[in-house]
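Appendix B: complex inputs.
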Amino acid sequence: MDAVTHAPSTEVLRAIVDAASDGVVLCDADGAIVLVNAAAREMVPGDVASLLDLRREPGETYETAAGDRLLRVRREIFGIVHQAWYLRDVTAEAARADALRAERERARFLVEAGRRLSASLNTRRCARAATELAAGPLADAAMVVLPPQGMRRTAWLRTSAAGLEEGEIPVTAADQVPGLAEALAGFPPVPSRWLDPQQAPDWLLPAGFGPVGHLLVTPLPGNGVPAGALVLARREGGPSYDEDTETLVRVFAARAGAAISAAVLYQEQSATNAILAGDLLPPALPVIEGLELAGSLRAAQQTALIGGDFYDVLPTPDGPLVTLGDVCGKGPRAAVLAGQVRHSLRALLLLERDPEQLMRLLNRALLSSPTPGSHVTLVLAAVKGGAIDIAVAGHPAPLLLRADGVVEEVDARGSLLGAIKSGVLTLRIATIDLDSGDLLLLYSDGITEAFGGPTGREMYGATRLKTALATCAGLPATAVVERLEQLNSDWLAGGVFDDRALLAIRRSR
Amino acid sequence: MDTAPFLVEIENPEPGTTRLTLSGDFDYTTSGDLATLSPTLMNSDLRTLEIDLTGVSFIDSSGLATLIHLYHAAEEHPAEMRFVGMTPYIAHLFEVTALDLVFNLPTSAT
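Resulting structure:
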């Protein structure tokens, strides 16, 4: 049986078009509207003709606003008489796309913020990065007020169309901005707050900024320390801060605060280390008639591992007392102990000049120290005319280079200072004659225990040092120290090293 | 410089005796490991503390300080601390620091 088909009547077709969810507008060749379906009427309650663009090619799609809706419109031509426009409401779709784009923008902003904020451990550079990041996406002017750290004045940095500006305010001026003083003190904890733009003192905004529409003060949360505050300003008429932007400001402030407080702590620590390491810096050597003095102190590279090598040349009426020592351990404690030993020696020298007695006194002083592990190795060499009294405590014995190139090890030894609780200090003192052209070399174990060589695991050792010293006969003291230091550095070949100290005393005539 | 790992082996060869066998680099970065062990070592049964340094490749002043600390802890306990293994390098180091006059060293290596 053949299938029977019926062509639909005009009424049925009209009903089908009317029931479609897309809007349909049918026109004749001249653009006069023949039919508007229910969906199109719903989308465009007013004059639909104004949305229909006759210049569009058949099949072309375009977007147009109708009231608060966004419509996607497609033009089609049927035969020579009719043309149709299909309308679809894409308002929600466009809003979702906008939201996604905004979210991606925020994510990109935070990634960039994380990258730039973590790039430096310098407080000023961190604060500058924070203002530069915030100016634009978050505000027309972004200012970071740094924590005052107990000072009367505190620094600020600001970025706006005027570029980067920097300045200082008295800490008391923070009271002029509600919430700023609390944010700088880190206590009591305050949320970010909106300010009445009229409340802004002049210094808060760049000159010629114009009327302020929105002003936000946000504390920068640090790692347990206040990291300052972020002040954001938008001009009157600019977009207001919506909920998403406020959240973004909070997340951004947390990152900026963490970066700035890390920088503040790091700078405090490096300043402390620099002060402590300053105690270990070798002194300028005095000029002494008939003697050449030369020293070299190379500190271990890692700043956290401030070592404990030190030397001094202390003048006395009898002649100079030359000291070279190494305190046990590393870091700030070693630096403090080295400073104490150097000062103790200076003080003891006012009362006692004999190296052996000085060693015994220092040993007793260290044993009575409340800090456990106050161990020191030390060489004391008291130069008196042509003779030198040498006391050695737990330290490699000095080497003597005779004018003819013969190297001798000074026959002195003794135990580590501050180590043996019984207080019995075994010392064997040596007295040597330093004749014209002879050189006495004091060194720390960082020289002989330098790991390097062909395998990188071999110690430099006393034998290599003696061999190297033997080649230095006739050289001035400065040249000897430079040469030994150079040979030792070559051995290390750039490897990690401990503190290395060298001090040479040569009789020039 | 690649460092040799620092290891401490603890054995009880006989009642009242604890033997520590140290190996690797005994320096500023590793000496804390042994220092923290000290209170546990000084138990009531301890009479003799033996220390074997044969496998130690490097000792710095912090390592020496830890040995001195152990020596004093043993003295106060009281227990006898003696060295049962030594290398020429360490024997020389003890000589330079005059610790050979304080510590009980094996006669063979000195």
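Chain B has one domain: 7-101.
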